[in-house]
């Protein structure tokens, strides 16, 4: 039986390999995975402040500002003054940004499909259930930490 550390290490290995492959395939289409996160976010939620982006993506405000600077320079996003706060700017995706994002999304999906084709439908369902449980547990631990609840070691459920 594999230890939890061995399984965790294998999950991290998978994540890093898939991340690298996806990033390379998207970069070939003109946008890195990191930059595409901003474009996907703006495409999904619409125009918003950079502080909203930082909070939603859990990035430092300075990181978001630098990313938006680059995206704006490449004409992928547009900044306009916030009508409710003259100090703030509203960031929105441009039509060029949408085209680049959609072009990068296609190879990403193909790559993910190819990787996960190693699993049967039943295995995919099982993996989804297992990963969902792990995500829920991680969220529970994060909430405890944010609430300042001190907890000892938790037993496997």
Automatic annotation (TrEMBL):
Keywords: DNA-binding, Transcription, Transcription regulation
Pfam families, alphabetized: MarR (PF01047)
Residue ranges annotated for the HTH marR-type domain, each copy included: 8-136
Record has DNA-binding as a keyword: yes
GO molecular function: DNA binding; DNA-binding transcription factor activity
UniProt-recorded name of the protein: MarR family transcriptional regulator
């Amino acid at each position: 039986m594999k230890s939890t550390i061995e399984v965790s290490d294998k999950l991290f290995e998978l994540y890093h390999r898939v991340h690298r492959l996806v990033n390379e395939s998207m970069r070939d289409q003109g946008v890195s995975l990191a930059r595409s996160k901003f474009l996907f976010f703006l495409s999904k939620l619409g125009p918003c402040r950079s502080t909203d982006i930082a909070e939603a993506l859990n990035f430092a405000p300075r990181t978001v500002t630098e990313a938006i600077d680059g995206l704006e320079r490449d004409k992928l996003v547009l900044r306009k003054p916030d009508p409710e706060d003259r100090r703030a700017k509203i960031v929105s995706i441009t039509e060029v940004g949408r085209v680049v994002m959609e072009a990068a999304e296609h190879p990403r999906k193909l790559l993910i499909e190819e990787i996960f084709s190693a699993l049967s439908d039943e295995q995919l369902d099982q993996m989804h259930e297992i990963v969902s449980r792990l995500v829920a547990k991680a969220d529970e631990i994060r909430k405890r930490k944010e609430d300042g609840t001190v907890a000892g070691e938790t037993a496997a459920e």
